[in-house]
């Protein structure tokens, strides 16, 4: 990294005392969602269950869940007046600290709810940002999370400072001339400060991207495999199983924020780079997708995606759609992928058999128990390297080639006969030219 790059990284420093977030004072919450006519009661329940997991990961206990059926949100307050009035009463009775809305509220909607119904409110995006903030460990992930937070805050400055103006009397009239409130003046100052921080963080992230691009060019001969999937599908567990990397595994949403890469040697000896990435989720805030472009670059640059699916979750097909939607947003939808159905140890074998019929190209594994990992590796090699199983007859004056096969191919069988050395090997597309003259054509088969 040259001096200019170091300067770009140093221009914006995250002070530890500013980064470490104070413990959230809100400990209990009600959850609320809007449901349109196309959503079933089951859809609503499962969506609110996911929001409850997000709230619990953020350290907030859920006291109740509610929904209102409307074809479109109320422009000013998202929910209707009657629903919010009743919700305010129930929250007061239950002594719930905060209302969490299962959507991203507009800049004025949260303020209007708080002002008109005396309900403290946060939206789904704030909860996810809060979790990301707590889980960010490296400088890169902290920069990316902080950028997303600032992008979220920028259009919402008015909400923060209208409280101040209300307390101070708001817009005042002095001698017939209207003067702006303190909050309005402070909004302009804060907006400039935030935009300046955003500019500096973007510059630092661009430097990180440049570093990653340089690293990518240095290892571009190696094939690249990326693990993607819905959050908590078991990506890090599989990553550890394949590489013995010892990456932190927790039963929490977004336990992994930083992309981790390790070299993985296939049976043919071909090295590949395997990367674990941040989990996806439905309604993933666009601020986060934009901010995590340096991390998601690993996905865009992959030769193969392992799309990890938690088969024990009833909504796994919906999650597959959500992951593919994010892949499309980041321009990675055309990269070959293997559907890897994980956690088969948690479901009935009959269900696994039915799903194998429905998804014949999928691979069904248990990452934690190591079940069918060999099948997954074989599938990876088949797609990534175009592996084929070949029957070879190599003359004795070419024993150096036999040694080469032991280095670059998987030897399935080896037999020394009078007329030559008979090998059955699994070999990659790129190395097949070495043995073209020794293939027994009538016995050649595909993997």
UniProtKB/TrEMBL annotation:
Coiled coil: 198-225
CDD domains noted in UniProt: HflX
Domain of life: Bacteria
InterPro entries named among the record's database cross-references: G_HFLX_dom, GTP-bd, GTP-bd_M, GTPase_HflX, GTPase_HflX_N, GTPase_HflX_N_sf, P-loop_NTPase
The Hflx-type G domain, residue ranges: 223-388
Binding site for GTP: 229-236, 254-258, 276-279, 342-345
Pfam families: GTP-bdg_M, GTP-bdg_N, MMR_HSR1
Record flagged with keyword Magnesium: yes
Alphabetical keyword list: Coiled coil, Cytoplasm, GTP-binding, Magnesium, Metal-binding, Nucleotide-binding
GO cellular component entries: cytoplasm
Molecular function per GO: GTP binding; GTPase activity; metal ion binding; ribosome binding
Cellular compartments annotated: Cytoplasm
Binding site for Mg(2+): 236, 256
Cofactors (names): Mg(2+)
Stated family: Belongs to the TRAFAC class OBG-HflX-like GTPase superfamily. HflX GTPase family.
Subunit structure: Monomer. Associates with the 50S ribosomal subunit.
Function field: GTPase that associates with the 50S ribosomal subunit and may have a role during protein synthesis or ribosome biogenesis.
Protein name, UniProt field: GTPase HflX
Organism, as annotated: Cloacimonas acidaminovorans (strain Evry)
């Amino acid at each position: 990294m040259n001096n200019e790059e170091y300067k770009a990284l140093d221009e914006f420093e995250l002070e530890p005392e500013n980064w470490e977030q104070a413990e959230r004072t809100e400990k209990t919450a009600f959850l609320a969602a809007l449901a349109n006519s196309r959503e079933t009661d089951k859809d609503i329940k499962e969506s609110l269950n996911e929001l409850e997991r997000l709230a619990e990961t953020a350290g907030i206990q859920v006291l109740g869940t509610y929904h209102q059926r409307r074809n479109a949100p109320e422009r000013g307050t998202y929910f209707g007046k009657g629903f919010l009035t009743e919700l305010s009463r129930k929250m007061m009775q239950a002594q719930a600290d905060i209302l969490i809305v299962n959507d991203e509220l507009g800049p004025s909607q949260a303020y209007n709810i708080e002002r008109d119904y005396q309900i403290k409110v946060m939206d789904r995006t704030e909860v996810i940002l809060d979790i990301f903030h707590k889980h960010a460990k490296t400088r890169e992930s902290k920069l990316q999370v902080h950028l997303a937070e600032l992008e979220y805050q920028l259009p919402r400055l008015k909400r923060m400072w209208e409280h101040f103006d209300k307390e101070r009397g708001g817009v005042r009239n002095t001698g017939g001339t209207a003067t702006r409130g303190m909050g309005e003046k402070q909004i302009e100052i804060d907006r400039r400060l935030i935009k300046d921080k955003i500019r500096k963080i973007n510059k630092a992230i661009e430097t990180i991207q440049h570093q990653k691009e340089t690293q990518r060019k240095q290892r571009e001969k190696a094939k690249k495999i990326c693990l993607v999937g819905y959050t908590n599908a078991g990506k890090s567990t599989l990553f550890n199983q394949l590489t013995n990397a010892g990456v932190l595994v927790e039963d929490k949403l977004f336990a992994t924020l930083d992309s981790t890469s390790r070299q993985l040697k296939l049976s043919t000896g071909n090295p590949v780079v395997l990367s674990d990435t941040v989990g996806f989720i439905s309604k993933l805030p666009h601020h986060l997708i934009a901010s995590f472009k340096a991390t998601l670059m690993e996905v865009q640059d992959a030769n193969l995606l392992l799309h990890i699916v938690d088969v024990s979750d009833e909504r796994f097909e919906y999650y597959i759609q959500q992951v593919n939607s994010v892949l499309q947003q980041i321009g990675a939808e055309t990269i070959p992928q293997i559907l890897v159905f994980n956690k088969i140890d948690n479901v009935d074998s009959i269900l696994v058999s039915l799903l194998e019929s429905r998804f014949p190209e999928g691979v069904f594994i248990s990452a934690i128990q190591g079940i069918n990992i060999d099948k997954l590796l074989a599938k990876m090699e088949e797609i990534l390297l175009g592996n084929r199983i070949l029957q070879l007859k190599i003359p004795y004056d070419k024993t150096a080639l036999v040694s080469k096969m032991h280095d670059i191919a998987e030897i399935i069988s080896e037999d020394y006969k009078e007329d030559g050395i008979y090998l059955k090997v699994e070999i990659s597309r790129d190395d097949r030219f070495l043995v073209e003259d020794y293939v027994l054509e009538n016995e050649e088969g595909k993997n």
